[in-house]
Amino acid sequence: MKKIISTENAPAAIGPYSQANLANGVLYISGQIPVDPATGKLVEGIEKETHQVMKNLEAILTEAGMTFKNVVKASIFLKNMDDFAVMNDIYASYLDAESFPARETVQVSCLPKNVDIEISMIAHQD
C-alpha cells in the first residue's frame, strides 16, 4: 500500500507529484531544489543551495520517521560539475560515514527554476 508523505517543513510540490511516497517500507523522495519552505523563495549560491536541499530532504525523512541513515540511494543533479567538490563536502556533512548511500552525480543543462542543484533520495525503513 502506498502512503503519500507531506510536510510543511519542505517546499510544496510545484507540479503533479508528491514530496514522497512510502510503499512497502521504501520511501521515494522527489527531487528537492533549494526553496526555503518558510518563505517560498530560492536560496542562491551552491553552498546555501546544497544546505537547503539537504534540509528539505531531512524534513521529508523526518516526516516519514526516518533519518539520513535510512537512505540507500541518492541522485544528484548539478548544473555545473565545477560545483561538485563544494556540494560533496556539504552533502557528506549530513550523512553518517558508516552508512553512505549509493549515489550518482550528473551534470544537466537546466533544472526547475534554473537552480544549481536538485537531489532525490530513496530510503528504507529498518
Automatic annotation (TrEMBL):
InterPro entries: RidA (IPR006056), RutC-like_sf (IPR035959), YjgF/YER057c/UK114 (IPR006175). It holds the Pfam family Ribonuc_L-PSP. It comes from the Bacteria. Belongs to the RutC family. NCBIfam families: Rid family detoxifying hydrolase. This is 2-iminobutanoate/2-iminopropanoate deaminase.
